Every structure is written in structure tokens, then in C-alpha cells.
Amino acid sequence: MSSKQTSPQFDVLIIGSGAGGGMAALRLCEQGFKVGLIERGPRFNHKTDFVLNYPDWESRRNPLEHARQQEQTINYDYRSAAAAGEQSRAPFHYHRVHGVGGSTLHYQGEAHRFAEHAFNIKTRFGYGLDWPIGYRDLASHYQQAETLLGVAGEVGNPHKPEREAFPTPAHPLSSRSRILAKSAQTVGFTVLPNTLALPSQSIDGRLPCQHSGGCNFGCVFGAKSSIDQAIIPRAEASGNLTLITNTRVTSLTLDQSGAITGINCLNDKTPSRLYAKRYVLAGGAVETPRLMLASTNQAAANGFANQHDQVGRYFMETVVASVQMQLSSDTELYRGPPLDSRVWDFYKPKDASISGFVLGSAGYLYPAIGPVNHALQTPGIGRAHKRQVRQTFGQKIILFGVTEQEPIADNRVFLSQQNDQAGIPKVNIQSRYTQRDKATISAMRDKLLAWGRATPNAKVQSISDSNVRSSATHVGGSCRMGHNPETSVVDAFGKVHGQSNCYVADASVLPTQGCGDSPSLTIQALALRTADRIVADLKRET
After folding, report:
1. Which parts of 282-370 fold into alpha helices (H)?
2. Cα dihedral across residues 497, 408, 17, 304: positive or negative
3. CATH code where residue 466 lies
4. Whole-model pTM above 0.90?
5. 8 A C-beta contact, residue 11 and residue 539
6. Residue 140 is part of which domain span?
7. Which residue intervals define the domain FAD-dependent oxidoreductase 2 FAD-binding in the entry (predicted)?
8. Helices 435-453 and 175-186 sit at what angle, rounded to 10 degrees?
9. Which of 232, 236, 357, 535 is deepest in the core (most CB within 10 A)?
10. Which letter does DSSP use for residue 405 in this model?
11. Considering only CA atoms, which of 276, 235, 287, 231 is closest in space to residue 14?
């Protein structure tokens, strides 16, 4: 496409096809608008591209690791900032995917509505930040997203608002969760079925969840409601979607007032420029601020929409603790949804001393515990070795706790002085834990150890947390929503403050992370809400 062309080629251009970008694209397409959806990675075929299609999956290169193998936009050489007198934390590891569907390609399908208290933590408990909206403002969009995804769940969770029935019934608890539910009772915990975007009944002609436990490698059955399976085909059926793959957005073009006039792209090292009436940034809590900060001119010397130095600030990691156990009986670890149950007993904070958190157990497959690696790690030879492998495979269980990182202005994404191979600035991520974060990690570790030790025939093998082994699957903040342009980047509908044609629809808008709930459903509900506002704005112009 010629860079000389300045007339809009689309009504809306969306950068990023993950949870937010894909959902926004669907709503806009179904309302009759022409949408260009730009994705840095390829479109995968779940029947041929995902490694679990093959017996030797443990030794194969996982295509969902594409983001790590391309030229990096993140400077991985940094160390997280540590409080005075502390040693530096572990290096930051950001799990993301370049491909149509984004990180929903490897997520476990958790689909959580944030509870009412998660929207006004500051007012209720005296820490964190309040949202500019409440649960009721988002409830209908939660329901719409759940319907599109065929979310499986069970009503009656006492820790969540009352609600209508789920689109599909909850999955029966796996043998792992049934064992752990009994031991949880002995220490006063209640294990409840998780709410999952893994339909338990067929929707849209797709298979229901097959309980294979391989969600994080990409669903080979096409059953998981990742964006590429549940949303993109619907948008394509409208005839209004143009999917632009293997294309990297390098910067935004700005006019003399600092407003967006187009976007600059690279496809196989070939530059191009695209134009639209409206632009949606949906690259995630690292890439969206990077793109904004890297887009400058005289009117935006510090980056697009960054006149108040808010872009990149209030970044939040995934804060976790985990315990690995070995059972002396087969738990069929590889059967059932990977995260089929949760403990929400500690979801609502009692005071400001620690954040709310949730507990759960993991049964997902990964190479280190696959059958080949398990056999290699098991001592012995011959028939005795084979018998031992059969007897012990599927006995490892991981208990985990998840909380939200306290949002503070100094935790931030900012441009590095280094460029990647394409000449695009990398980013640095500065992040430290507050005393409340550390106290919450300690509380989670204590609860997990109590739970593990109460489990019959189980031996605790190791305990870890994100302070010593960082692994961020859910990152948020960095372009947070709020009413005040001096302390936030977008308004309550995701529209960038001071801009008439730009919106953000990804995890970067989250003021907080929901007390440990997974954010994907909230990102999707917010994206639908943002898309509705774009529809209204565009219709006013016609």
C-alpha cells in the first residue's frame, strides 16, 4: 500500500488481534464498519501447527513461542528494581504470543468477572486505585462476551455478584481437583468449579472441550474459545474484516496537533502506511505504551498522548506463589481442563495489610513433566523402569496463588536506548514490589503449604514465587483509564484523553488486576464497551 495515500482505507484500524482487539473487531464488523485488524504474527492452523498434534511434541519447537524468537522489543537484560537493602529480583519473563488470537492462543481459558469490590479497592480498603466505572457498568458486556465464548460455569459463587446462568454448564471436577477439594476442607478452604472459556457443550459447530489438558500449547481440537476460533470467523462472516497478518506496526504518524493521521508498518521488511477514520491500540500492556512512546513529533515530543507523563506508568505484573507436590497415587494430571477449580475464600481483602488473592491447582501439560521427560527423569532400566514410569506418571500437582500487584507510578514501561534489529526501540520495564505485595506473597505461600501438607499421600517438593522466579502471564496497567487526564491515559470508554480518533482496548487500561482473577474476560468486556462507543462516534459523523 502506497505511503502517498492519505484517504482512509478503513473505518477502523485495530493493532493487535488478542482478547481486546479481536472482540472489538467483531462488534465493529457486525455493526457494518470496515475494519482492518493488524497482527504481527501468522494465522495458525490448529490441526497442523500446534505441537500436541504430534507424538513427539516434547521435542518440537512450539510455534506459540514465536514472540520470543523474533527480534525482541523488550530488553531482557534488565533486573527488576529492588527496595533499599534488597537483592535484585529475578529477570522479568513476559509470556505472550505473536499470532492471530494473541495470548488467548496459549491461555488456559479462565473467564472471570471481577467482583464489585475489585472496582473500588481504594475507597473500600485504602490502597490501590479506584476504577472510573463499576461492576454494573460492565455487567451486560460481561454477559455478551460470555455468550460469544460459550463460557462454562456454575452459578452460586458466594464471592461473586448474583448472575444469570452460564452459556454452558460447569465442567465436572477432575480427579486432581476432587482430591484437593477434600484436603482443602480440612484447612477451611472451599474449592469451587472455575469459570472457563472452554465450552462444555458444542457451540458454533465446534467441538466441546475434550479435557486433554493442553490449552497452553494451543487447542488442537479448536474447542477452546480463543479469539482465532470463537471470534475471528464471526467477524469474517460479516464481510467487513480485513485480516492483515505478519505485519508489525512500528509507529503512529502524527499531525501538527499531535493527533494520529496514520500508522507505519513493516511486512517482511517492506514499509507501508495505513489510514482509517478511527484507530484502536490493542497490543497489550507492553507493546501499546511502547508504540505510543515511540511516536513523536514537535507536538508530542514525549510520545503520543503523553503530555502528562502517564503513558507506561502503573504497570502491573502477575504476582504468584506456587507449591509443587508429588502424590503417591495417579491423579491423571493430564485429564480435564488445566485450571478447573479455584479457591476464592481470600478474594476480598479484610483490610489494607494484604491484597485479595485466589488459590488453585494446575494440571496442564508442559515438556518438563511430559511422558518422555518423565521417563528420562525416572531412575532404572528395563521392565522395572517401565513399571515405575507407569506407576508415577501423572502424580505431580502444582498448587498456586495469584494476586494483583499494587499499582504505583514508578512501576513503568519506558523506551530503552537500544534498538532491535529492525531499528525499533526496545523497552525497559521497571518494577518493584511494595511491602503489601510481599506480605500477600507470604500469605499465599502459607496457605498453599497448609493445603499441601493437608493432602493425603502428598510430598511437598518445592515452593516458589514471582519475587524469585518472575513469570508474567497477565500484565496490565501502563495506559490506565480514569476521569482525570493528568493521572490517566484513557477515559472510562477507552478513548485516549484529548484525542478524537484513538482508543485503547487491551490490558493496559486496567487500573487494577481484580484481586487475582484472570483479566481476559474483563479485557473482552471492556473492548465491547469501547467498540460500542466507537460505533456511536462514527454514526454521529454520518
Report:
1. 287-293
2. positive
3. 3.50.50.60
4. yes
5. no
6. 12-45+67-155+175-197+212-541
7. 11-50
8. 100
9. 357
10. P
11. 276
